[in-house]
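Repro:
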Amino acid sequence: MKDQKIEDLLTQVERRFEQEGNLIELDSGIAVFVGDTHGDLEATTLVIERHLTPEKKLVFLGDYVDRGPDSEENLNLLLWLKLKHPDNVYLLMGNHEGRSAVRFYPSDFWEGLSDEVTARYASVLSKLPLAVSTSNGIIALHGALPSVECVEEICGITYGGPKWRQITWGDWEEDEGEFLGIDDQTGRPQFGRGWFDKIMGRLGKNVLIRSHQPGIKRTMYGGRCVTIFTSSAHWAYVSERTIAIADLDKPVNTADDLVIETV
């Protein structure tokens, strides 16, 4: 690679992701959930300045690159922070980190790299965790819920497989059905309230915190599906960048038990 420092960073953070596995479990403290940043370095920096403290856990829900002007800087900052604060910063996988599994567009970050550098970043990001589970009723991930029987089953989800695609590519719709098919334009699997209720029941969770869909309502399904988005780097995104803050020492039953903050 052109920059030995970046290679060293990737090598070290890859080991960290391998140690964490697919599922992160958090039991106490304050958790700050951050939606897609998509190259919005300003948003990432503001979150860090406000909330990176020893008492808080920052959980980034994926999609760190593409669309925004500062994708490489945004991603490298987050990877560096993961090494610097491994127990306070958690990076989950979004669909834009799954380059080696699925080709997608727009992908300006990936298209601007050499083949060698693309392969290296893609290999490292394929090791990212998929979900965070908390002891007070939260499951957090990028897109939709996977077809699993229990939380622990997330640990065995295969990168690039159907359940991985549900997590990283899945959309929610205001429909009572379960699986609603594949969107003709985006190729994303679509799910309704029936699926949400079924899988959340299996997981024993009260609230899903996720990102991925900037145009969707912030809360759905009785306030139990919470969508945040933390990038304004593209014209199609929301103007109000949001994060969700949860006290993990208190029960979380609906969005009313979270603090939604504008960045």
